[in-house]
Amino acid sequence: MSAKKLFLLLMFFSGVASAQDEKRALSILDEMSRRYQAYSSFKINFTYAPAGGRPARGEAIVKGQKFRLKMADQEIVTDGKTIATYIPETNEVTLQAYDPQEIGDLSPARIYLAYKKGYKNAFTGETNANGQTFENIRLTPTGSSAPISKVELKIGKQDKAIKGWKVFAKGSDTMNFDVTGFQANPDPADADFTFSKKLFPGAEIVDLR
Description:
- There is one protein chain.
- By secondary structure, the protein is of the alpha+beta class.
- It has helices at about 5-35, 100-105, and strands at about 40-50, 55-65, 65-70, 75-80, 80-85, 90-95, 120-130, 130-140, 150-155, 160-170, 175-185, 205.
- The protein has one domain: outer membrane lipoprotein receptor (LolB), chain A (Clam), CATH 2.50.20.10.
- It has a twelve-stranded mixed β-sheet, covered by helices on one side.
- β8 and β9 (about 150-155) form a beta hairpin.
- The longest helix has about 35 residues, at about 5-35.
- The radius of gyration is 20 Å and the shape is globular.
């Protein structure tokens, strides 16, 4: 076989493998998405850390487009109309009109839908840890203006739940998230997602609505 024919054959099988990886990734992601959409609400506890950094704890409660995200350096609350961002370091709350597109696909209320638009999906293999098997999916933005280069999702093979994800910013920055706890349908009150000065006593309010 000539070198040219061998090259074309390798390219053909590479293309077939790529298509199969995309098809399998889409099947896994669809199952994962259906799982989360079936909940009226859910709560996730997680740890997060930059590459080589010390992990910190976070928590997210989601109810439809409403969510409350608590992290060490910020807290975000939205009722789907107004979004409040609290920065403990400056003791300041910024109020803005809620725009799901501006928040981005990786917000707690949208991460299980991120793959549906603006990303190429690929199955990158299975890994095992602590008696669990994970299916790994890589999401690559299709737009050149995206601030991230890729996202790697770790999904439980048995329950199709998100177990962790890693975000690669353009350049060298990465942020790794690991889910440490999950609660389905905790039934939070709508008031839990509505900004109130009582939530952040003494904080300066900057209203940009």
